Amino acid sequence: MIFKFWILNNHMSDKKIFILEDDVNILYGLEAQFSSDEFIVESSEGEEEQEELLDNIRSFSPDYMILDLILPKLDGFEIVKKIKEDEELADLPIFIFTDLSDEDSKNRSLELGADYYFIKDEFDTYEFAEKVKKIISNQSKDEEEEAGDTYEE
Q1: 53-110 pLDDT per residue, tens
Q2: pLDDT for the residue 75
Q3: Residue 47 pLDDT > 90
Q4: Using H for helix, E for strand and C for coil, what is the string for the chain?
Q5: Could you tell me which residues come within 8 angstroms of residue 46 by beta carbon, excluding any fewer than 6 positions away?
Q6: Cα 86 vs. chain centroid, distance in angstroms?
Q7: Burial level of 7, CB count in 10 A (0-12/13-18/19+)?
Q8: Of 105, 145, 58, which is closest to residue 44 (Cα–Cα)?
Q9: What is the rounded CA–CA span in Å between residue 83 and residue 65?
Q10: How confident is the model at residue 7 (pLDDT cuts 50, 70, 90)?
């Protein structure tokens, strides 16, 4: 069992995650949570122009993205749309972490291509980060099984 755990941890250690969050307390908390599990983290507070942000995301080439929908200069919905329309970024899994709790916002995000939707009031940063890491870990296990690289005891 330890060996299997090491394999999952090892797969996480080479994962890159981009965090777009304007609340610095949440941003720093998420950066710490993912960095401590050896994710390579890049982040933005959403102060740049949309095209500069997209260029930064493209150059970082993340495996996952966490995105707040409510940002000072940018429209989070528009960012989701632009990412999913972008040839280089279209397959990027997006985790929404927002204060918007209405069904319309959730449905709109998912229709635009977001993969997961979490409401900030329902989770603290630690719980949210743990949920995201569990989803990523489960995806890694599924990919291993599909590739035939599973190790059974």
Answers
A1: 999 999 999 999 999 999 999 999 999 999 999 999 999 999 999 999 999 999 999 9
A2: 96
A3: yes
A4: CHHHHHHHHHHHHCCEEEEECCCHHHHHHHHHHHHHCCCEEEEECCCCCHHHHHHHHHHHCCCEEEECCECCCCEHHHHHHHHHHCCCCCCCCEEEEECCCCHHHHHHHHHHCCCEEEEHHHCCHHHHHHHHHHHHHHHHHHHHHHHCCCCCC
A5: 20, 21, 22, 53, 68, 71, 72, 73, 74
A6: 17
A7: middle
A8: 58
A9: 10
A10: very low
d(C-alpha 97, C-alpha 119), whole Å? 6
Closest CA to 69 of 58, 86, 83, 55: 83
Report the distance separating Cα 104 and Cα 108, nearest Å: 6
